[in-house]
């Protein structure tokens, strides 16, 4: 199947959801003029506020501007000093995410809403890069800093996003859903902050390579309370018009978007036609955009399958035959051949290597 792609091609555009943008501008405006951060924002705040008053979408920002704005907002906000992102994120609703939020809100179930959120990340507005990775009977939603963000800025954005995600899931399903666990980067925080995290996020661990929320894969089938097929179609069409009208940004990581769509599909639906439909594109367009990145649909699918195979072999006691069936291979023999071609190792060798590394 050729080379296996490595994944991300670069950071996402740095943009905020409209409600969060308004909150950050308001909080940053509370800084005293003599504060060191105020000088860096002075050339920008009047222009940004004027655009906000004129109902313009939030602009693209550099990493330096994101760092400065959020640090200024953290100094100026009246939110709890323990975990301000939790307080701000907890007040978010799907309507705060504009057309993509309406498309998610009216989707039939959580899985379809997640598809839409991953597909239209550029419309939702977060400097974080989101990746969904099924793992056993779980779904792992990873949050990575999409640029050179300061540690306190990344922590705020992670707090805000996870708090809004969990609050929205509860609102839209009508269920008191609690994740299996939340994994966060960085060292453990002071006890009072850890207690706030545990209250908001459930079981929390620190020191992870990437922040992540892990929930049962069965959540993907939960119906949404405001599912509405007609409104859903209109909202999706709106998102697609905005996407096609926009100038493509560098670092869109289209191959990663394709891989995300593949991961959330059952094995029998992991084909080009299904992925193209989820992305709202013609299959030829998908092939062309992947070709411009120096890869193919077959290679992206191979990379995704290899990632899943490594996860199952490392974290599951299931047999090679069971894992092969779960990943959509015709039999264990074809699974072994594929792994040997991709990595030079058998399933047993990869499982042993994972055990040795763990």
Topology:
Layout: H1 18-28, H2 36-41, H3 45-53, H4 63-76, H5 84-89, H6 98-105, H7 110-119, H8 121-124, E1 128-135, E2 138-145, H9 151-173, E3 181-184, H10 191-201, E4 204-206, E5 211-216, H11 229-245, H12 254-263, H13 272-279, H14 283-292, H15 297-315, H16 320-326, H17 332-343, H18 347-357
Parallel strand pairs: 3-4
Antiparallel strand pairs: 1-2, 2-5, 3-5
Helix pairs in contact: 1-4, 6-7, 6-11, 12-13, 12-15, 15-18, 16-17
How would you explain this protein's 3D organization?
Strands 1-2-5-3-4 form a five-stranded mixed sheet, sandwiched between helices. The longest helix is centred in the middle third of the chain and has 23 residues, at 151-173. By secondary structure, the protein is an alpha+beta fold. The two termini are 29 Å apart. It has two domains: 18-221, no CATH class; 253-358, Orthogonal Bundle (Arc Repressor Mutant, subunit A). The radius of gyration is 21 Å and the shape is globular. It is built from 18 helices and five strands. This is AraC family transcriptional regulator ligand-binding domain-containing protein. It holds the Pfam family Arabinose_bd. Residues 256-353 form the HTH araC/xylS-type domain. Keywords: DNA-binding, Transcription, Transcription regulation.
């Amino acid at each position: 199947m050729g080379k296996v792609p490595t994944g991300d091609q670069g950071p996402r555009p740095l943009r905020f959801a409209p409600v969060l943008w308004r909150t950050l501008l308001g909080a940053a405006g509370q800084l005293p003029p003599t504060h060191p951060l105020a000088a860096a924002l002075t050339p920008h705040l009047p222009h940004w506020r004027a655009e906000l008053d004129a109902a313009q979408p939030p602009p693209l920002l550099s990493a330096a501007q994101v760092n400065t704005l959020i640090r200024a907002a953290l100094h100026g906000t009246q939110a709890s000093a323990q975990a301000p992102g939790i307080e701000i994120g907890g007040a978010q609703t799907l309507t705060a995410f504009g057309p993509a939020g309406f498309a998610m809100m009216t989707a039939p179930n959580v899985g379809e809403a997640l598809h839409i959120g991953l597909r239209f990340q550029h419309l939702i507005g977060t400097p974080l890069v989101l990746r969904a990775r099924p793992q056993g009977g779980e779904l792992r939603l990873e949050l990575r800093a999409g640029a050179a963000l300061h540690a306190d800025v990344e922590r705020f954005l992670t707090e805000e996003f996870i708090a809004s995600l969990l609050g929205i899931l509860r609102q839209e399903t009508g269920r008191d859903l609690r994740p299996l666990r939340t994994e966060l980067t960085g060292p453990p925080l002071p006890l009072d902050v850890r207690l706030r995290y545990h209250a908001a996020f459930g079981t929390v661990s620190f020191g992870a390579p990437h922040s992540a929320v892990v929930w049962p894969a069965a959540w993907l089938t939960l119906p949404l309370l405001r599912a509405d097929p007609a409104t859903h179609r209109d909202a999706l069409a709106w998102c697609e018009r905005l996407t096609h009208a926009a100038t493509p940004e560098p670092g869109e990581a289209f191959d990663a978007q394709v891989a995300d769509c593949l991961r959330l599909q059952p094995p029998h639906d992991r084909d080009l036609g299904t992925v193209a439909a989820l992305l709202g594109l013609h299959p030829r367009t998908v092939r062309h955009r992947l070709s411009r990145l120096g890869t193919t649909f077959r290679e992206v699918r191979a990379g995704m399958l290899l990632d899943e195979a490594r996860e199952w072999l490392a974290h599951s006691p299931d047999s090679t035959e069971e894992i092969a069936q779960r990943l959509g291979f015709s039999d264990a023999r074809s699974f072994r051949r594929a792994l040997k071609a991709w990595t030079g190792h058998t399933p047993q060798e990869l499982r042993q290597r994972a055990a040795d590394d763990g």
